Amino acid sequence: MTDDTYASMRKRINKANAGFRKGQPDTFKGFNLMHEQAMAAGALDHKTKELVAVALSVASRCDPCIAFHVPAAMRLGATREEIMEVLSVAVMMGGGPSLMYAAHTMEVVEEELAKDQS
């Protein structure tokens, strides 16, 4: 990871996407609409959907996705224990590579918890 923290990664990614967002606003509108619809409460609540996104972020080995979805899940009330259980399923399905990204996920959890305590 080139960033010092996952929070700095989120800022860097948002800044880097600004030009793309400006140049292709319809793409971002479409993605944002899809995101809103997919995350809207239905048979599953929003927190559960964010936990699924965390697991899929680990399975797809996407550090920026982890950086965005872990704090989102935690803002919705996901606990360290819930995240660890989701990681167990992701590791069971994805093996060793998912285990490495589960560690990244726990780094974000600890970063977020430390932020809340300061």
Describe this structure in words.
The chain is an all-alpha fold and 118 residues long. The chain is 83% helix and 0% strand. It has a single domain (6-117), classed as AhpD-like, CATH 1.20.1290.10. The protein is globular.
Please give a quick description of this structure.
With 118 residues, the protein is mainly α. It has a single domain, classed as AhpD-like (Up-down Bundle).
Could you give the topology of this structure?
Layout: H1 6-23, H2 25-39, H3 46-59, H4 63-75, H5 80-117
Helix pairs in contact: 1-2, 3-4, 3-5, 4-5
CATH topology, anyone? Answer: AhpD-like
Q: Count every helix, treating DSSP H or I runs of 4 or more residues as helices.
A: 5
**The CATH H-level homologous superfamily:** AhpD-like
Oligomer: single chain
The tally of strands reads 0
| Beta-strand proportion | under 5%
What best-fitting shape do the alpha-carbon axes yield?
globular
Helix content: over 70%
Distance from first to last alpha carbon? 24 Å
The CATH architecture assignment turns out to be Up-down Bundle
Rg (C-alpha, Å): 15 Å
Per CATH, the class reads: Mainly Alpha
Note the main sheet: none
- Structural classification: mainly alpha
Instruction: Please state the average pLDDT score.
Output: 95
Number of domains: 1
Low-pLDDT ranges: none
Q: What order do the helices and strands follow?
A: HHHHH
